[in-house]
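Subject: sequence -> structure tokens, single chain

Hey, anyone have a minute? Need the predicted structure for the following. Not urgent.
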Amino acid sequence: MFRLLHRIVVVGFWVLLVLIGWFAYEHRTRIQPVLDEIEILKHLQLTTDPSRVIARMTGEVYQITGPDSFRLRTADGVRYHLRLEAAQAPPESTPAARRWREQGARRLSHWLLSNRVEVDLVYTNEYRLGLGFAFRAGTNVNVQLVKSGLARINPDQLKNLPLREQFALLSAQQEAQTARLGMWK
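Reply:
Had a minute. Here:
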């Protein structure tokens, strides 16, 4: 009697499991946004330092030096060579990667060159090299570059950022991957 009851329970469990799997497969378009949010939350790193910004500067971009770097001149004439924090262009290992790097440099040039830009500096040294977040007209250029698929997140830099920036960058990369933009084609 117990054996029969045990078999009924085990078969019922497996039938229920198969039905749940079938239902999830049939309604995957409704479930996908939830799975995307779970994926984003898995990658978030809570940081004890809510803001690593050491300075905020404003200046004019006078040269684009790469798909994720530029030179900025402040109002008093001081020049900085800055790289976008946590947004990393693909390495030049393949022709496709070189094409994405060139397109990223063109897009960065379109957004920043000869424009007034605010930069939240996260790191700088005595040679005026630095990492930071660039903002043009209130729009975070780092996020826009990742969202367009022309840069990806640098996980080593991401885990030390404030939660708001982590979420914005992870969401932007998820959008680019889902839409198969840029390097995610």
